[in-house]
TrEMBL record:
Its cofactor is NAD(+); Co(2+); Zn(2+). Zn(2+) binds at E182, H243, H260. This is 3-dehydroquinate synthase. It catalyses: 7-phospho-2-dehydro-3-deoxy-D-arabino-heptonate = 3-dehydroquinate + phosphate. It is an enzyme of class 4 (lyase). The gene is aroB. CDD domains: DHQS (cd08195). PANTHER family: 3-DEHYDROQUINATE SYNTHASE, 3-DEHYDROQUINATE SYNTHASE, CHLOROPLASTIC. It comes from Faecalicatena orotica. It is found in: Cytoplasm.
């Protein structure tokens, strides 16, 4: 399956195919004419797929950097390590960085590629469900600061995205669940039929036969939204459904409790509950979301008082001038951006 993100000079193809990792050279040579490649990965993914990828790239001089797994690696503090490795491996603007891993590696290696020498070519090979359906596409790259998620970043598009659903066979169950948080998000914001498909199954196992087409559907929704609003000034904010609360929860617990997808699950349910209370969503939608989250083992409650969250909510990147923007649902599949303020959370009695 093939998709193309159409962004004039920044356009790029996305291929979704079982076993594509082993055919990487055939696709990479279509977008890259240089010789040197640096693969950035983590200590879970590289031992599983690193050598396989290097063997699949015989025409190139490949180096690699393996970082500790987990969100705390996606930090400003990791960047000097990456830049040093790039210098030691003589990476120039005519070379290529491959991000091989989940969303942490994709965002981090992507930001390093965007900033080193003011921009080195980037290919994304996402290996988690979340990275395959969301983070590898759209060009948002970033690192976290202690004050909040993704606070330093850029819009920097890859030259190519290679999605191999086979690598999900080794993904731990917790991160299958985590990825389902973003899959459910796509149903909520844009695709009531996708939401119904997810709702009609009893578990992830029950959905597996449709996995490639679900990945395709999510990526296609993201492609369309990003093509309309590359720089996140309007329609793209819809991809942030559930994220105002998700990011505050992740940061509050120092990235040690909920994973990103789990926090998004809580955020989607809670914001829809608040929005129903305020008469801004069709009644019953929060319960439908809670039920589908439950099917895939995702949480919906977090038990934090709003007073603990306000500082982080103020750092949300959707905030403009003196107002917050939250993403709400008229109904499942039909989302909108709602300008508001902190009172929205306070008066509705978060959480
Ligand atoms: N840029 C974007 O548009 C965007 C979108 C959504 C999320 N994100 C970011 O993505 C990050 C979360 O990504 P994630 O959920 O992939 O987390 P992650 O990168 O930490 O991966 C989850 C875990 O799975 C392991 N793993 C990954 N692929 C594997 C495989 N095939 N086999 C075995 N283990 C594997 C990793 O080592 C890690 O331990 C967050 O930082 C989030 O902010 C970015
Ligand atoms: O691509 C986007 O736009 C998104 O909002 C996708 C989100 O799933 C993702 O978590 C993104 O990194 C959040 O971006 P931020 O701008 O809120 O940091
Ligand atoms: Zn997200």
């Amino acid at each position: 399956m093939e998709l193309k993100v159409n962004l004039d000079k920044n356009s790029y193809p996305i291929y979704i195919e079982s076993g594509i990792l082993e055919k990487a050279e055939q696709y990479i040579t279509q977008v890259f004419r240089g010789k040197r490649i640096m693969i950035i990965s983590d200590d879970h993914v590289f031992p599983l797929y690193g050598q396989k990828l290097i063997q699949a790239l015989p025409s190139f001089a490949c180096s690699h950097l393996v970082l500790p797994h987990g969100e705390t690696t996606k930090s400003f503090k990791t960047l000097p390590l990456i830049y040093t490795a790039m210098l030691e491996n003589q990476i120039t603007r005519s070379d290529l960085v491959i991000a091989l891993g989940g969303g942490v590696i994709g965002d981090l290696a992507g930001f390093a590629a965007s900033s080193f020498l003011r921009g080195v070519k980037l290919v994304q090979i996402p290996t988690s469900l979340l990275a395959q359906v969301d983070s590898s596409v759209g060009g948002k790259v970033a690192v976290d600061l202690p004050q909040g998620k993704n606070l330093v970043g850029a819009f920097y598009h890859p030259k190519l995205v290679l999605i191999d659903p086979d690598v999900l066979d080794t993904l731990p169950e917790r991160y299958i669940t985590d990825g389902m948080g973003e899959v459910i998000k796509y149903g909520c914001i844009r695709d009531a039929a996708l939401f119904e498909t997810l709702n009609s199954r009893h578990s992830f196992e029950d959905l597996k036969d449709q996995l490639s087409s679900i990945i395709y559907r999510c990526v296609d929704i993201k492609r369309a939204v990003v093509e309309n609003d590359q720089f996140d000034t309007g329609e793209r904010m819809l991809l942030n459904f559930g994220h105002t609360l998700a990011h505050t929860i992740e940061q509050y617990y120092h990235y040690e409790r909920e994973s990103h997808g789990e926090a998004v699950a809580i955020g989607m349910y809670q914001i829809t509950r608040l929005s129903e209370k305020a008469g801004l969503s069709v009644p019953g939608e929060a319960e439908r979301i809670r039920s589908v989250l439950n099917t895939y083992g995702l949480p919906f409650q977090c038990g934090l008082p709003v007073s603990d969250l306000t500082d982080a909510i103020k750092l949300d990147k959707k905030n403009l001038d003196n107002h917050l923007n939250v993403v709400l649902l008229h109904s499942i599949g039909d989302s909108y951006v709602y300008p508001t303020n902190l009172d929205f959370f306070k008066t509705a009695g978060m959480i």
